[in-house]
Write a structure and sequence with these properties.
By secondary structure, this protein is mainly alpha-helical. The chain has one domain. It is built from three helices and no strands. It has helices spanning 7-25, 31-50, 54-59. The protein is elongated, with a radius of gyration of 13 Å.
Length: 68
């Protein structure tokens, strides 16, 4: 796996994950939609930690400055 995510992309994903978790914890979003947001938050954190997004590979995109 070659890194395809830049720093800005990782920060945005971490912020979105934190917002999704906060929405669920405060019961602003509940039920199936809340669970879906938690799954997205987990995916965002995981892809940020490993600096690789499989979706970017499928569409041929990279936000990593080392790959440009």
């Amino acid at each position: 796996m070659k890194a395809n995510m830049g720093t800005t992309d990782k920060i945005i994903r971490f912020i979105l994950a934190a917002v999704f978790v906060a929405l669920y914890v405060t019961n602003t979003v509940t039920g199936t939609f809340g669970i879906a947001l938690l799954v997205f938050a987990g995916v965002f954190v995981l892809t940020s930690v490993i600096s690789f997004c499989p979706l970017y590979t499928l569409i041929g995109f990279s936000s990593c400055p080392a790959n440009k």
